[in-house]
């Protein structure tokens, strides 16, 4: 077998990203490599062969064992050598398989099938297995880590931000809870769509022409064959499986990719020098800049976003592969091969995000300083306006807005400005006591006191999604 240094490879996935994801990419290669593609096609061909034997009552234990042995012996290298002669990948596979089988059953190989029956069915199998055996566990690990961080920081005060400006107080756990909820939903959908990938054994135009020459019930032949592979038939086939089964899965993966990129971007911004509320792990030997020794760049978060930028636009190709002329053309032949790269790029981003969350440090002191000193009491203008309005003051918003301007102009706190208007302070104080039972001086002494349901929501979502991820594990164990 020819050996080749990885640094001679063209795709960054095959050298740079392989180096940092060896275990992950080796796991994916069992499903998405070219060798895996050949083996999955052979698996489909041999499932069809077993179906023919059963149909003809020839499925003896000895012959089934011979088929299983042939499946182990198939060599992608020999298939490729044969393809140089045939210029056809599936006919090369068929020619390679036949000599590995008992002579009296060789004529059944590929009988009734067209190439895309094998290719589309094998594609559904390998992507299903890659998603369920590699991608879902990676996503679950990330979701569980986010749940842990969410719960750990559920009570940690933080200022909320909208439009790049200070808004009202939340907690850092609440910030994380957004991604717990968004990613959790996407994981469930990815798993569901992977379970609904379909195969076909419907022939050259999908009308069962060939298999109708073999059996009076071509539907049953197709169902039996696909059941051996734990797949269902496409509801309608041309020469190809309906593309929407795979398209929906890839679009949901792209949705999850965007969620992870959004999380990486938020965390990158929280590491800005002027914010400094969190830090990703930076090892003692790590270098942030070739010229500025003090730099501690948030490069892992940037890396995740950069991977998203590279791979997310490929969704346009997924949409374009939805269209095929009449019963089939070959315009998805090259583009469809890059789905494996897309899944690998997504897996690398998920693994990197797992690394970020595992090593993340939360600067609670800085979070509180930002809220209390930088944002300050001005973020309490909202509860003051709400309380004043409930006391029947129609112009409450305008009154409070002017008090915030007064505080800025006179360089005093918003609370001090509010107290300079005794009528406003009295109404706000009275309503606060009536609604919450709290003392106004105590409540307005710290913005951290005004956080609504942030901490409660963080605890709730962390607990809910931890249980749901555990439920996926239990369901997976039962199915195995």
TrEMBL record:
Question: Keywords on this record?
Answer: Lyase, Purine biosynthesis
Q: Which part of the chain is the Adenylosuccinate lyase PurB C-terminal domain? A: 324-438
> Coiled coil located at which positions?
none
This protein's GO cellular component annotations are: cytosol
**Is the keyword Metal-binding assigned to this protein?**
no
Q: Does the keyword Lyase apply?
A: yes
- SUPFAM superfamilies for this protein: L-aspartase-like (SSF48557)
Q: Which GO terms describe its biological process?
A: 'de novo' AMP biosynthetic process; IMP biosynthetic process
UniProt GO molecular function = (S)-2-(5-amino-1-(5-phospho-D-ribosyl)imidazole-4-carboxamido) succinate lyase (fumarate-forming) activity; N6-(1,2-dicarboxyethyl)AMP AMP-lyase (fumarate-forming) activity
The superkingdom listed in its UniProt entry is: Bacteria
Q: Which InterPro entries match?
A: Fumarase/histidase_N (IPR024083), Fumarate_lyase_CS (IPR020557), Fumarate_lyase_fam (IPR000362), Fumarate_lyase_N (IPR022761), L-Aspartase-like (IPR008948), PurB_C (IPR013539)
Q: Which residues form the Fumarate lyase N-terminal domain?
A: 32-305
**The protein's role, per its UniProt record:** Catalyzes two reactions in de novo purine nucleotide biosynthesis. Catalyzes the breakdown of 5-aminoimidazole- (N-succinylocarboxamide) ribotide (SAICAR or 2-[5-amino-1-(5-phospho-beta-D-ribosyl)imidazole-4-carboxamido]succinate) to 5-aminoimidazole-4-carboxamide ribotide (AICAR or 5-amino-1-(5-phospho-beta-D-ribosyl)imidazole-4-carboxamide) and fumarate, and of adenylosuccinate (ADS or N(6)-(1,2-dicarboxyethyl)-AMP) to adenosine monophosphate (AMP) and fumarate.
- Protein known as: Adenylosuccinate lyase
């Amino acid at each position: 077998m020819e050996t080749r240094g990885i640094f001679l490879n063209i795709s960054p996935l095959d050298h740079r990203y392989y180096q940092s994801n060896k275990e992950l990419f080796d796991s994916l290669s069992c499903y998405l490599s070219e060798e895996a593609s050949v083996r999955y096609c052979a698996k489909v061909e041999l499932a069809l062969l077993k179906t023919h034997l059963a149909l003809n009552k020839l499925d003896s234990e000895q012959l089934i064992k011979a088929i299983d042995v042939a499946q182990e012996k198939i060599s992608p290298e020999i298939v490729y050598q044969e393809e140089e002669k045939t210029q056809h990948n599936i006919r090369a596979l068929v020619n390679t398989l036949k000599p590995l089988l008992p002579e009296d059953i060789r004529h059944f190989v590929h009988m009734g099938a067209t190439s895309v029956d094998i290719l589309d069915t094998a594609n559904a199998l390998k992507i299903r297995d890659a998603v369920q055996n590699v991608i879902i566990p990676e996503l679950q690990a990330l979701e569980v880590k986010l749940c842990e961080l969410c719960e750990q920081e559920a009570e940690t005060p933080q200022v909320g931000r909208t439009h790049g400006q200070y808004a009202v107080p939340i907690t850092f756990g609440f910030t994380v809870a957004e991604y717990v909820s968004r990613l959790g939903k996407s994981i469930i959908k990815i798993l569901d769509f992977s379970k609904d990938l379909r195969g076909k054994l419907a022939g050259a135009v999908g009308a069962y022409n060939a298999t109708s020459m073999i059996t009076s019930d071509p539907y049953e032949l197709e169902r039996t064959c696909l059941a051996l592979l734990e797949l269902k038939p496409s509801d309608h086939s041309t020469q190809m499986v309906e593309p929407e089964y795979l398209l929906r899965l890839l679009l949901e993966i792209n949705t999850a990719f965007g969620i992870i990129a959004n999380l990486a971007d938020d965390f990158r911004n929280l590491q800005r020098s002027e914010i400094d509320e969190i830090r990703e792990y930076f090892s003692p030997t790590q270098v942030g800049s070739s010229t500025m020794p003090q730099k501690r760049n948030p490069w892992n978060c940037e890396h995740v976003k950069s991977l998203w930028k590279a791979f997310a636009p490929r969704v346009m190709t997924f949409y374009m592969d939805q269209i095929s002329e009449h019963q089939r053309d070959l315009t998805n032949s090259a583009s469809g091969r890059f789905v494996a790269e897309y899944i690998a790029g997504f897996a690398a981003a998920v693994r990197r995000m797992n690394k970020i969350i595992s090593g993340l440090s939360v600067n609670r002191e800085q979070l509180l300083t930002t809220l209390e000193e930088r944002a300050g009491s001005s973020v309490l203008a909202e509860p003051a306006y709400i309380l004043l309005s409930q006391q029947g003051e129609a112009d409450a918003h305008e009154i409070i807005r002017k008090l915030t301007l007064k505080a800025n102009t006179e360089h005093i706190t918003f609370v001090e400005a509010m107290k300079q208007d005794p009528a406003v302070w009295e109404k706000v104080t009275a309503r606060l006591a009536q609604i919450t039972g709290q003392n106004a001086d105590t409540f307005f002494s710290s913005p951290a006191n005004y956080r609504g349901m942030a901490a409660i929501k963080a605890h709730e979502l962390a607990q809910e999604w931890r249980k749901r991820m555990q439920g996926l594990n239990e369901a997976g164990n039962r199915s195995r």
